[in-house]
Every structure is written in C-alpha cells, then in structure tokens.
Q: What sequence folds into this?
C-alpha cells in the first residue's frame, strides 16, 4: 500500500531523511517511532505528498505521490487519509461544515457526502458537537474532528501524526480505541512518541533515528533484542593495575558480542549496568549473570529483565545512531 | 469543479464567520455612504453615480488587501495548508478557489451600495443611465479583481497577515505613484509603459460609463499574471 524507495530529504545542510526504504502491506497498523528531529514527520509529509523527496520515490496504493510527466499525484492522494500533528482545523467552522468541506475536496457527490459526514460524526462520537464551533471544542474533540476529516472519504490508507498528543488519559484511551477500530480494515501508519501505544496496537514497528531506518519488525521482536538485563551491584575499588573483573566475566559467560552499558547510579556505592547478551547466546542470561556475581562474591541489589524492552531497545538504537554505530535491526 | 467551489465557498463563508469580513464590509458601506451623500446628492447637479464610483475604486486599495491578506498567510500560520495541500487538489485549484472566494466577498460587500442608485433614482427628476451604472460597477469589480490578485500573490509568500496587508498596500501605492506623480522622474522611454499602469484612470473610464475593451483586457491580463505568479509561488512551496 505504501512503498518508500531510497527516499532522502534535506533542509539546507541538514539531512532530515537519509536513504529510507520500506513497504507497508494492506490491513496492518505500523508504528513509526523515533526521537524528536529523527525525521518521522518529514517522512510522513513526503508520503502524504506535502514535501517532495530530493531523491528516491514513494508510491501510495500503486500511484506515485510526486507529480511526474505521466503521473497525477491526486490519484495517490485520493487513497490517503492524513491527520497532521496537532490536527490543524478552521476554528470558525463547525465539525459538520468542516467534514462536508473535506468531503467536497475529495470529490464526493452530494448524496454520498451527507451519508459520509453523518457516518464519521457517529463513528468518532462527534454527533453532539456537530454544530458547535470548532474553536470552542476541547483538544480531545478537535483531535477527533481531525480524525473524522481524515476518514470522511473512507480511504484505504491512514497516516496519523501524534494522534494522542496533548490528550488527557481518558481522551487518549478513547482515541486509541477509535484508531484500533479504524485499523481493522485499513493500512495505518501511526507516528508517535508513545511506545506502549505502538506495543499494544501495532503489528509492526519502524524506528527512525538521525533520518535512517534503524529497526523494522514486530514490536516484540524488536524489543527482544533489548538490553535484556538490568543489574545493580556494588562498585569495586577502582585501580589501574586491577580493573574490575566483573564485565569481563559477564562477557565470558554470555558471549563475545555481549554489550555492557552503564546506567545512572541510584544509590551511593552501587553501580547499575544494562547487559545485552550476545545474540548467539542460548540459555537464561539472568541465571548466568547471577552465577558470575556469586563466583565474584559481589552483592546484588537488583537483577531483572528491563521493564520496557521495546523502549530500551529504541533508546539503545537512538544512542547507536547518534554515535554513528551501525545498528542491527 | 466541486473542490474549486468548495474552497471558494469556505473562503467566502469564513470571511463572514470572522469579524474581519463584517468590519471591512461595514467600513466600506459607511465610507461609500458618506461619499454618496457628499458627492452625488447635490440639488441641481446631473443624476449620476460617476462621482461615487471613482472614490469607491480608491477605497478598494485598502479594502482589497484587508480581504486578501488572510488567503494563504492564515493557512500557513494555522497549519491548515497541510491537510489542504494533501487533499487531491492541485495548487491551481487552491489559488483559483481562494481567489474566487475573495472576489465573491467583494461582490457581497458591494451589494449594500446598490441602495445608492435606488435612492438617486427616487430623488432625480430624469431617469438614470442604467448602462453607466452597470459600467461603474463593472469597473469596481475589475479593480477589485486586480487588487485581490496582487494580494493573493503576496499572501502566498508569508505567514504573517499584517505583513501581507502592508506589502500589498505598499505595492499598490507604488504602482499608483509610478503611473502618476512619480512618472515625471522616469526616463522618457518608460513613460508609455507607466501610463498603461494607470489603474485609477482606467477605473474612472468605467465610472464615466465608457466601456473600452483595452481597459478590460488590461485588468484581466494583469490579474491573470498575478494569479499565475501566485500559483508558481504556491507550487514551489508545495514542491519543497
């Protein structure tokens, strides 16, 4: 449904998106994650046809998004429902008027338009607010109006940029439920900062950092490669002649590709480490680390799998991208 | 056609759903009423609206930028240009739709002034020249078309409505000065060209009931050129 091939985009000297490629199949919700400035919004703006890539190509439902001699971008745009960040709307209009306007822009005939507007007002639970000015609605309702506008023409592809941004918990929950409902029959690309949102709802996650795709797969698979174990033990006396033997012993136990990253200390005299076992390691890394600690007579305050593996993995990927290290997606 | 009319309709509707449209319309109605009372209702003078149309065209120099300033600048500022540009409508449809909406606002603004010929007909001894009145209104419309096209172009270049208003006003004043008082400082070679830019002179011809094709062609061609530039400006912005 969405095919991005080697897309790149720069703003002046800043390369916002760098040689990005992925394809989204019909009927799935995909999460697009990344830190601020990673290139998420630039990516979805290129897919929506709001920005033109400097290089590469993007097709939506088989139609090129960018105008060429032989292609009309409107054919692609007709298949797209797009909710930009913060749901920009006309405050002087009423939801019913705005939705009717959007339906006209998509060329819906009068009869279909009336039915479509009534349908999305109902589906987005906006019927009671249909004739109030958008300017006086709460942020939650405005977000719903934006969402209703994105689906009024019943598009097969939906791109949603931070749809729950700034909502209170109750509004967030109802908006998520609505998106999940919409995703049942559509290809949805959900751009968000909220990792649990992606873990719960998306079949696939794309992680962008520094304009590049650094991970792509189901959330649990991407999360499985997280720094799986968090460890808190006593800090050894530092000495240049006798370095702490623990990191070497853990690496020896879990395999040569094991990575140890220090975490901020929470208690004086103790150190915290994030341990990512060698991908080739078979077994229970937690038990192996416990054995190493016992052999070295090191007290343990905490030894447990990371609480949010996907989040840990994403932070790890972002750190690696920031330092220019090649990430294993 | 539906998207074009949808954009024009929203533009016209929004103009009168916000205070700007009503304030501008009220001010225009007030000022033209004063002009009509002072310039036209004169016992013993010929029953003509000529002396109303000429200053009414001058007033458009302020009114048109006030209407055109929001056309694109407001969309840029509010971010609503993004959902609009990602709908299946090209930049040409967007420019024409917005322009037609603004032009319809001017027409709506001129509707209250139709009371003046009615009042004049009631007061005058001789019947009014309907052709001259129609020509006067056509002249006002032509001037509005041109000013709005200049304003639309300026509005595509900035997200500040105030800047769009001032820049349009300054551009129109510069054209007026170049074709009028400042032309005596221009090289002889440029004088015929500058004379062609005499917008108020052409408007005065319409006000006098003189319908000349060259004036209509000038307004249509100039407006078309400005709209083409507005289209190019928006297309460049969309193709970033």
A:
């Amino acid at each position: 449904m969405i095919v991005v091939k080697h897309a790149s985009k720069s703003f002046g000297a800043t390369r916002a998106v760098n040689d990005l490629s992925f394809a989204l199949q019909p009927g799935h919700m995909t999460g697009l994650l990344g830190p601020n400035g990673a290139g998420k919004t630039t990516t979805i703006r290129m897919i929506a046809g709001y920005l033109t890539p400097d290089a590469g190509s993007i097709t939506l439902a088989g139609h090129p998004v960018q105008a060429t001699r032989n292609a009309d971008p409107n054919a692609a745009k007709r298949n797209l429902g797009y909710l930009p960040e913060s749901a920009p709307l006309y405050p002087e209009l009423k939801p019913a008027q705005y939705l009717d306007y959007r339906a006209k822009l998509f060329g819906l005939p009068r009869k279909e338009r009336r039915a479509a507007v009534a349908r999305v007002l109902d589906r987005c639970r906006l019927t009671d607010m249909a004739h109030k000015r958008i300017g006086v609605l709460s942020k939650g309702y405005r977000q719903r109006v934006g969402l209703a506008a994105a689906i009024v023409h019943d598009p097969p592809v939906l791109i949603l940029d931070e749809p729950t941004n700034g909502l209170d918990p109750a509004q967030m929950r109802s908006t998520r439920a609505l998106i999940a409902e919409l995703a049942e029959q559509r290809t949805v690309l959900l751009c968000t900062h909220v990792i649990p949102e992606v873990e719960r709802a998306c079949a696939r996650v794309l992680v962008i950092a520094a304009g590049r795709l650094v991970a792509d797969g189901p959330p649990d698979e991407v999360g499985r490669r997280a720094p799986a174990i968090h460890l808190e033990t006593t800090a050894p006396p530092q000495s240049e002649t006798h370095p702490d033997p623990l990191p070497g012993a853990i690496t020896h136990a879990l395999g040569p590709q094991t990575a140890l990253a220090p975490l901020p200390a929470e208690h004086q005299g103790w150190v915290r480490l994030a341990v990512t076992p060698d991908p080739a390691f078979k077994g229970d890394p937690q038990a192996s680390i416990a054995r190493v600690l016992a052999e070295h007579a090191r007290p343990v305050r905490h030894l447990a799998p990371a609480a949010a593996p996907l989040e840990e993995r994403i932070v790890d990927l972002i750190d690696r991208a920031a330092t220019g290290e090649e990430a294993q997606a | 056609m539906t998207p074009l009319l949808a954009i024009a309709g929203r533009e016209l509707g929004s103009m009168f759903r916000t205070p700007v449209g009503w304030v501008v319309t009220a001010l225009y109605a007030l000022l033209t009423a004063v002009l009509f009372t002072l310039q036209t209702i004169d016992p013993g003078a010929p029953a003509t609206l000529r002396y109303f149309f000429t200053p009414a065209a001058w007033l458009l120099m302020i009114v048109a930028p006030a209407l055109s300033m929001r056309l694109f600048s407001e969309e840029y500022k509010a971010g609503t240009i993004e959902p609009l540009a990602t709908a299946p409508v090209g930049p040409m449809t967007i420019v024409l739709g917005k322009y037609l909406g603004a032009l319809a606002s001017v027409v709506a603004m001129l509707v209250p002034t139709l009371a003046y010929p009615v009042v004049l007909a009631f007061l005058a001894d001789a019947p009014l020249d309907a052709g001259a009145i129609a020509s006067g209104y056509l002249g006002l419309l032509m001037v509005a078309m041109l000013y709005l096209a200049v304003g639309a172009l300026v509005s595509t270049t900035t997200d500040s409505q105030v800047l769009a208003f001032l820049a349009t006003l300054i551009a129109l004043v510069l054209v007026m000065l170049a074709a009028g008082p400042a032309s005596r400082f221009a090289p002889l070679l440029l004088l015929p060209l500058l004379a062609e830019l005499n917008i108020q002179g052409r408007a005065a011809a319409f006000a006098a009931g003189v319908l000349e094709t060259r004036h209509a062609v000038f307004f249509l061609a100039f407006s078309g050129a400005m709209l083409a530039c507005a289209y190019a400006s928006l297309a460049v912005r969309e193709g970033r």
